[in-house]
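Late entry, zinc ion complex.
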Amino acid sequence: MQAAARYVALAALAVASAGRARAQSALPLKHAPLATQTAITAADLMTRLYLYADDSMMGRSAGTEYNLKATAYIGSEVKRIGLIPAGDSGSYFQNVPLVQRGLAGASHFAIDSVPLRLWEDYLPRDQGGATHPIDNTQAVFAGAWGDSAMLAPDQAAGKFVVIAMSRHPNPGQPGWFVPRAGASTRYKNAAAVAVVSLDSMPAQLRGFFKNPQVMMSGGPTPPEQPSYLYLTAAAARQLLGRSPDSATVGMTGKTVRGGLNFVETSAPARNVVAILRGSDPKLRSEYVAIGAHNDHIGFDHSPLDHDSIRAFNDAERKLELASPNHQVTPEQAAQIKVNVDSLHRLNPPRRDSIFNGADDDGSGTTAVLEIAEAFAGAKVKPKRSIIFVWHTGEELGLFGSQYFTDNPTIPRDSIVAQLNMDMVGRGRADDESGGGPGYLQLIGTRRLSTELGDVIEKVNKARKQPFTFDYQFDAAGHPEQYYCRSDHYMYARYGIPIAFFTTGSHRDYHQVTDEPEYIDYDKLAHVAQFVYDVATTVANLDHRVVVDKPKPDPHGNCVQ
Ligand SMILES: [Zn+2]
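Prediction complete; structure with ligand written out below:
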């Protein structure tokens, strides 16, 4: 599942609190020939997932060679299973045109003729498009962000504007924080906006800003903006000829030399698309789509101690589940840290830097493979066809599903429903309140088609051990925004009825500890079998599931 901003902050906090240190799984890295059977089994899912979420996959990030490696495994499996290729030009792969934007090699920045050190004295940010040139511009001091006496925008035109950190940051906001969009808009005619906050910016955030961004190519070109960067106080002093603390608003400084440019290079990423032909000559031109996402969030350059992170998050989750408002107090968090630190002293660290994404979304990916294998081996095929799509770039912004639904390899209106699985291998009692073997969250099942929601309930009632559905995350306006945070939404925006199956978030979400050893394989097999049964029922109906709710604007914003 895609990260909500809140999660990024939480994960960073947990990592920082748990201390730095890495675990390695002792798995064979070569792909052994797989001996899976036709039926959907826990053992097959385990075989597949230990391979798919192995360290050798390096976190499967879209835009990297590891996404090609992960999708090559899926491609080889669907070929072996005997599905029909439905990607680009007769292959199983649909390339998704992602680009990586990073700082151009020729970028440099000097005051008069004295060069500044990239990342140490200054840190440039990507404004997403072209920026005004900075060569031969004069520095001017704009005051502290948020002060009423700040430099007027018209006095900043063509200048290199230096902003000091806010003297009165909003509650809950770090002192170094200046809203980039706000500052860029206020001084839109300036050559550059430089914020004197680099000294107090957390190292983890600096590391994050250094990474090139991966995005979809061919988006609208944003208007030219000022360059944007962060400076140390020492660099600002050099630039202004005095400390920003004693500088006055409107004071001019030295001349800037150089240029800061971001360039795009293509970044490898692909969907895997395969079809099982339906048995009914008329209905086989319609499709039930089953999907998951093939990517995860890659790896980090600073290894962490697997066991410390897990111990911290484990203790924290227990307290969250026990507390009525699911909150951990700062005192409780501090106590956990003390305990984890003492454990840490006793046990040698197992360093880990790879986000394996076993649950997110290795679980969904392997479940779709098991479903595909079961359909391919079934004596009686469903009447409608089944299209299997393993989407790329979900974590970066639902890019693969956006691209597939914008550029479908079958007619878009031939897709009668899409069933999405993202994180379907957890949901135990210690993961979720109300969790257990039969716990399953459903999202979006009645948002376009009441009938689809009813079919899912009916198929469930017929099970020997029915699931207990948790619909709380489907509520309109729910702050977790699950309806907008995985691939199904990209289908729903075109009016295709969807169902999102998930066992929910947990303490290993987007951590290096999301590993195959923590997956509930029986549960995963039950979810896969259930989705197989739902797909079969929908594919065999004598009519398309009826859309009886309003369709969203395909190019508007998602509304939870
Ligand atoms: Zn995710």
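The first helix runs from residue 5 to 18. Will revisit in the morning.
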